[in-house]
Design a protein that fits this description.
- Residues about 1-5 have low confidence and may be disordered.
- This protein is α/β, with parallel strands linked by helices.
- It folds into 2 domains: about 25-210, Rossmann fold; about 240-335, Magnesium chelatase subunit I, C-Terminal domain (Helicase, Ruva Protein, domain 3, Orthogonal Bundle), CATH 1.10.8.80.
- It contains 14 helices and 11 strands.
């Protein structure tokens, strides 16, 4: 059962929220952000989006070159929260049962026992998801969407705190199975991970050589999962006015009808953002505002999170791509042209 529809879970989250003041919950997450940024140097935007995914109860797809601390980020996050993590290397010979688990036959009594797979952890790093065949990708995406897996006709619930960070390597594309657009839509965010700047890379180099202190921020006791659920409840309850909601809706509508905002944008979009994208943008904008200490959402919150939320949900036409237009540039044009109510 999806934890958000579990009455007992809802009551527990409500009690946790009542026992934490909003400012205390926010301070806990700001402390978590400081800790993460001291572990992952030069990737502040990535760290923030990872925390947004935790608070918005979604999954993220990360595209970046090897060696940019993606695995370290998941491990650091799991260390700071009272939960566990698992890295799964996706390969062409991987089977769905390698993720979900399988029934093991016991000859001594003729019974079958379910052996859970690696997906039964809180934080999952699905490394190079595009290297596995479509059936394996579908098995993971079903687990992400339903928060459960079915093996041998029996359904098993996944942990209530469950986040998948899938990665794609933009360099090597041979022997890969690109995720279809319909499956990409299941991810709350798509993050494009760039290289750290010169100062950050110098700090990384000196830290590895032991020539720089670069002390990791002390975090203390891991955050209980109840605190995460309470913070999530607080963040998603952040107020959004009708004017900001209208701006959000008009922006998503513009991804489907861009010609309304410039004749040169006619014929550039094959498919715009889906209603799932509207819901994702709403949730992420609320979290973005909450992390900044506000109890209301501004148009700037929508703008700040729009590209990460929608870039994988918009499919440009072949002609637009041939003319050099990419999704980020397309969204930048809409951000500049859709008026704020």
């Amino acid at each position: 059962m999806n934890s958000s529809h579990d009455p007992a879970f809802a009551r527990d989250a409500a009690r946790a929220a009542a026992s934490h003041d909003a400012e205390g919950l926010r301070r806990a997450f700001l402390r978590l952000a400081d800790y993460m940024n001291s572990c992952i140097l030069g990737q502040r935007a990535f760290v923030e989006l990872l925390l947004v995914a935790v608070l918005a109860d979604g999954h993220l797809l990360v595209e970046g070159a090897p060696g940019l601390a993606k695995t370290k980020a998941i491990k650091a996050l799991a260390k700071a929260i009272d939960c566990d993590d698992q890295r799964i290397q996706f390969t062409p010979d991987l089977l769905p049962s390698d993720l979900t688990g399988t029934d093991i036959y016991r000859p001594e009594d003729g019974s079958f026992n379910f052996q859970p797979g690696p997906v039964f952890h809180n934080f999952i790093l699905a490394d190079e998801i595009n290297r596995a065949p479509a059936k394996v990708q579908a098995a993971l995406l079903e687990a992400m969407a339903e928060r459960q897996v079915t093996v041998g006709g029996v359904t098993y619930a996944l942990p209530k705190l469950f986040l998948v960070m899938a990665t794609q390597n933009p360099i090597e594309q041979e022997g890969t199975y690109p995720l279809p657009e319909a499956q990409l839509d299941r991810f709350l965010l798509q993050v494009k991970l760039g290289y750290p700047d010169l100062a950050a890379e110098r700090a990384i180099l000196r830290l590895v050589r032991g020539e720089q202190t670069g002390e990791v921020v002390s975090f203390g006791e891991p955050l209980p999962q109840a605190t995460i659920f309470a913070a999530r409840q607080q963040a998603l309850a952040t107020y959004m006015s009708e004017a900001v909601e209208e701006y959000l809706l008009q922006f998503v509508f513009a991804t489907r009808n861009p010609e309304l905002y410039g004749d040169e944008l006619a014929g550039t979009v094959a498919f715009g953002a889906s209603p799932r994208g509207t819901i994702a943008l709403d949730r992420c904008a609320r979290v973005h505002a909450w992390l900044r200490g506000r109890d209301y959402v501004t148009p700037e919150d929508v703008q700040a999170i729009a590209k990460a939320t929608l870039r994988h949900r918009v499919l440009l036409t072949f002609e637009a791509q041939a003319d050099g237009l990419d999704t980020d540039r397309f969204l930048d044009l809409l951000l500049a042209r859709v008026p704020v109510s």
